[in-house]
Specification:
Blueprint (H helix, E strand, L loop, with lengths): L1 E8 L7 E10 L5 E6 L3 H9 L5 E2 L4 E5 L1 E7 L14 H17 L2 H17 L2 E7 L4 H14 L2 E8 L13 H19 L9 E7 L7 H14 L2 E6 L3 H11 L3 H7 L7 E5 L5 H10 L2 E4 L1 H7 L6 H6 L4 E3 L11 H22 L20 H16 L16 E5 L29 H10 L5 E6 L2 E2 L4
Parallel strand pairs: 1-4, 6-7, 7-8, 8-9, 9-10, 10-11, 11-12, 12-13
Antiparallel strand pairs: 1-2, 2-3, 5-14, 14-15, 15-16
Helix pairs in contact: 3-4, 4-5, 5-6, 12-13
Amino acid sequence: MWFRGDLVHCPNLGELNVLYDYILGVDQSGYIAYVAPATTAESLAIIHASKEPIILVPRGSFLLPTFCDLHLHAPQFLYQGTGLHLPLMEWLNEYAFRAEESLDANPILAEKVYRRLATRLIENGTGAVLLFGTIKTETNIILARVMQEAGLRAFVGKLSMDISSRATYVEQSAESSLHSARSFVDQCHNLCAHMPAHERLVEPVITPRFVPTCSDGLLEGLGKLAAEKTLRVQSHMAEAHDQMDWVRRERGADDVDIFARHGLLTPRTVQAHCTFLGAPALSDIARRGTAVAHCPLSNAYFSAQPFRLREALQRGVRVGLGTDIAGGYDVDIMGSMRQAVAVSRMREGARIMADTNEDGQVAEGARQVNLAVDWKEALYLATRGGALALGLPAGCGTFTVGAPFDAQFIRVFSETTGEGIGSLDFFDTDKNAAKRKTLAVDMIEKWWCLGDHRNREGMWVQGRKVSAP
């Protein structure tokens, strides 16, 4: 499969590369086999000799790596966009546990919810997603199967929780919870075992919900299971003020210390939120290789303070973005990108005000680090940064030879009319806007700020074009 057109990717934090008029080739297994300017002798020979049609990415359009969502509660998609008026610990019992319990009791409903979720992810350009499921193994196998059939990279976690504020939604003991976790891991692996390696898109994830729902015995066992089978781990850490107070009061330690003690902070771990981690803790998880799923929208609802994004990046923490459905109400990672920038700018404004004295001068000894991130950095977090945090195959999130071809086809303006697509408008001084030839960086920025699903022409994961199931 061959493409010709403009490619856009962010290989490093803050770096936006626009590769104008390139040829990109994808092999039979879905890996990028060739990337080069279309005007080189080798590319021209490929174009001339190609026996299959070359997919043209027209002027005003570009290919971009797919988005990665590092934190999404699949069963909570059932009530997305409602129930955000309560503090975290009350919200869990009133909404989250109830929704998860209802899907565990109704496999037909679970299938319907998960298929619609897959549709929405594809519409919004999400090619890889880290999912929290429910406590019932069979329901999580439905989730894994639906995601595999949809052609999405999905890392599915069966919840482990032997403590609960909802008496009807809890596992009987640490031992039974560990048995169920092991059974799910085996069944999830068996789901794709008959497929070639490059087609196995779904993997199991060890998923202690968070410290308040897991005994020390359960956490210890999950840490050993993750090490034994070299599994990814996900959970919530240092998210909300009421949750942090509960953990200190009941367990006599902070989240980060408890997870570390039980072997659950590893290079294969993604912890959501981490809003209450200060500089020493951020340095500690960077040293351990643990990644963070930054979910700015849900943090606005459930955390008393924002995540220290700039400080985490400076310390080398791997960070990606998450929607946190349904603690966040928007399944589109583009929303998370925009919110991450807005929150960071508010943090920078607060820093400036705190460091400025009554005379408008910067106070002596004030920090000079700019806490704001820009749109290019946010785009990196949504693509390459998320891929690194998830531990995806080498090169994911970039257009480089050997990387899986995970891409979305974005249209900014019409090649024939020059008019913007969807909500995008362009007001050229040139009377003939249809003659516009160059995809400028400010056009990409406009799409980043205003674009939506109407700009997305298609999406590929591992070289296969995906569509709504």
